[in-house]
Amino acid sequence: MIDLNIEQMDTMEIVLKDTPKKIPLAVSRAINRATQTARTEAARKVRQTYRIKHGDVLKTIKISQASPGNLTGTVVSSGNVTPLYKYKVTPKAPSPNRKVSIRASVKKGGGGPIKSAFVARAKSNGYTGVFVRSGKARYPIVQLYGPAIPQAIGNDDVSKWVEEKAQERLEQRLDHEISRALED
User: Fold this and answer.
1) pLDDT tens sequence across 101-148
2) How would DSSP label each residue in 106-170?
């Protein structure tokens, strides 16, 4: 969980004392911009370590915006484990006659071959994934997974980075919103 502090609240109350109705509006706008920044920075920081698409990370993050009546904004990442196919896998397409092992890399600088794995595409819905056989028989097959994206976002390095960036954005936007409220 990321907590953002508004150190400039006292200053804002003094500057905007003639227009107290503008304070909650200015704060809510600043909080909303900070939550957007937190979302973007979380996806950016996760991609510095993991080999996953930016859009896949953003899909797990939900934002609840602040309003003048409720000065709380939240950024929450939720989801299940991510199929290994969403990370870097070569080859990406099914190749029944391949002679080399499937190679997978979840983290940058890591990974390697997975001897018994194969890429398959379902005929019914077109879903593609990396699978292994659970026994000597042709079926059943089991899909391989990588770590959950919320788990990567919850990493201490990522959460500290996101908190710092969101706090910086909140302070910048408060200055901007104060100026904007004074102009009106």
Assistant:
1) 999 999 998 889 998 999 999 999 999 999 999 999 999 999 999 999
2) SBTT--EEETT-EEEE-TTT--EEEEEESSSSS--EEE-EE--HHHHHTSHHHHHHHHHHHHHHH
Select from 153, 151, 150, 131 the least CA-distant residue to 142: 131
Using DSSP's 3-state secondary structure scheme, residue 76 falls into strand
Taking the C-alpha atoms of residue 121 and residue 105, their distance in angstroms, rounded to an integer, is 20
- Three-state SS at 5: coil
Q: How far apart are CA 131 and CA 155, in angstroms?
A: 28
Residue 21: pLDDT band (50, 70, 90) is confident
If residue 77 lies in a helix (H) or strand (E), which one and from where to where?
strand 74-77
**Which of 98-120 are b and which e, b meaning 16 or more Cβ less than 10 Å from the residue's Cβ?**
eeeebebbbeeeebeebeebbbb
CB 63 within 8 A of CB 77: no
End-to-end CA distance of the chain: 35
Q: Count how many residues are written for the chain.
A: 184
Please compute the mean of the pLDDT values over residues 157-168 and round it to a whole number: 92
pLDDT for 16 beyond 60: no
Ordered by start, the domain boundaries in the chain are 9-79+149-183, 82-146
